[in-house]
UniProtKB/TrEMBL annotation:
Principal subcellular localization: membrane
Keywords: Glycoprotein, Glycosyltransferase, Membrane, Transferase
Cellular compartments per GO CC: membrane
Matching InterPro entries: BC10-like (IPR044174), Glyco_trans_14 (IPR003406)
Annotated localization: Membrane
Top-level taxon of the source organism: Eukaryota
Pfam families: Branch
UniProt name for this protein: Uncharacterized protein
Topology relative to the membrane: Single-pass type II membrane protein
Alphabetized GO MF terms: glycosyltransferase activity
Tagged with keyword Glycosyltransferase: yes
Length: 367
């Protein structure tokens, strides 16, 4: 009787689902060994019965992540800590010239930073569009799309490469192609290497949070991510080495966020996965704020404001430097300056370069 219930409860729904989505496969469950799922091709003469008893072979990402999760948690004590600047883009880095000036401010280049770039390998990209960074594209890049977990995968790939590439990488900064620096390299370096905490915006009870939690179906996130565990925040964060390791090692929470959404309009997994994971695993190790300024004054299809070339000037830079982040749901006495800002259009590079040396990368003009 028990076996019959098992067959009814387990086999029937499975058989219906599998037959519907993959009509060439017939599913049966071995009654004597109910834990094994037997998949049998309808062309019996060619394909032997296949019993799935072990997980499928790892794809490249899983190997990469697994390797990266084994790196040392602390940078070597004798060498200087480095910043890992990780750009997530599709085809180019139109603002590369200002980043080049920024990085050129450090004389001992390779001693203090590394650059990593994730692109869409299916799109055409010319080395010239990356300036001096074209050789920094990571090899395992894959396409990444909005409203899907692929943007999270891309960030995890960047973290894994940066962890494996240099044991001195201490802070891991995720940037978009529309981001600029707001201070000199020196200022940025000192601010970040002096911190023992990650900077990641973590917000509770934001408007619409429940629909975002339930975007993959009402029960999909349970039991690993309960509604009360769910957090929202900017996808642009700065992680310590310990947290970079934590992210690439995470299988459990990722398995929940790595599911397709049933609703697109509430599906922004990259704004949910990182704040939720960090909040669940190490809330004390985080400053609940992003250091990348963004202007939400005019939201267009959930995209923030892009500064027009005519808006780019000394006044704007001063305004962005004097702004202070939102710290989670309040509390605390920190007043960190923003280190980066978005969104700047490719056409903005010319007015940006006009004020780069004198203002943007000049600490004497600090407000
Ligand atoms: C099924 O088997 C027949 C006979 O061996 C073969 O000709 C045919 O290509 C096979 N079909 C599939 C889908 O494998
Ligand atoms: C940055 O430094 C490199 C190497 O010294 C040099 O080739 C390049 O022209 C510099 N770029 C800028 C924008 O000053
Ligand atoms: C950056 O800091 C180093 C060491 O503190 C100093 O030697 C260098 O002159 C500074 N560079 C700039 C451009 O301020
Ligand atoms: C930096 O700003 C100060 C104050 O405005 C100015 O005197 C100095 O010339 C600027 N430095 C550069 C390199 O432009």
């Amino acid at each position: 009787m028990l076996a019959l219930y098992f067959i009814l409860l387990v086999c029937v729904p499975l058989a219906i689902v599998m037959t519907f989505t993959a009509p060439r496969l017939a599913i049966t469950v071995a009654v004597t060994q109910p834990a094994f799922l037997v998949i049998q091709n309808s062309n019996k003469t060619l394909t032997p019965r296949q019993v799935i008893t072990s997980p499928p072979p790892l794809d490249h990402d899983e190997l990469l992540l697994r390797q990266a999760s084994k790196v040392g948690p602390n940078p070597p004590p004798k060498s200087p800590k480095k910043l890992a600047f990780m750009f997530l883009t599709t085809t180019s880095l139109p603002l590369a010239p200002i980043w080049e000036l920024f990085f050129n401010q450090t004389s001992d280049h390779k001693l203090l930073y590394n650059v990593y770039i994730h692109v869409d390998p299916t799109q055409k990209h010319e080395p010239g569009l990356f300036g001096m960074f074209h050789n920094r594209i990571i090899p395992s890049s894959k396409p990444a799309y909005r409203h899907t977990p692929t943007l999270i995968s891309a960030a995890r790939r960047l973290l894994a490469h940066a962890l494996l590439d240099d044991p001195s990488n201490y802070m891991f900064i995720l940037l978009s192609p529309s981001c600029i620096p707001l201070h000199s390299f020196n200022f940025t370096y000192k601010s970040l290497v002096s911190s023992t905490k990650s900077f990641v915006e973590i917000l509770k009870d934001e408007p619409g949070w429940y629909d975002r939690w339930a975007a993959r179906g009402r029960y999909t996130m349970l039991p690993e991510v309960r509604p009360e565990d769910f957090r929202i925040g900017s996808q642009f964060w700065t992680f310590t080495r310990a947290h970079a390791r934590m992210v690439v090692s995470d299988v459990k929470i990722w398995s929940k966020f790595n599911k397709p959404c049933v609703r697109k309009d509430t599906c922004y997994p990259e704004e949910h996965y990182f704040p939720t994971l960090l909040h669940m695993r190490d809330p004390q190790g985080c400053v609940y704020a992003t250091l990348t300024h963004v202007d939400w004054r005019s939201v267009n299809d959930c995209h923030p404001w892009t500064y027009k070339p005519l808006e780019v000037g000394v006044g704007l830079i001063q305004k962005l430097r004097s702004a202070r982040p939102r710290y989670g749901n309040g509390g605390g006495t920190r007043k960190d300056p923003f280190l980066f800002a978005r969104k700047f259009s490719p056409a903005g590079i010319s007015p940006l370069m006009n004020i780069a040396r004198n203002v943007i990368l000049n600490d004497s003009t600090l407000v």
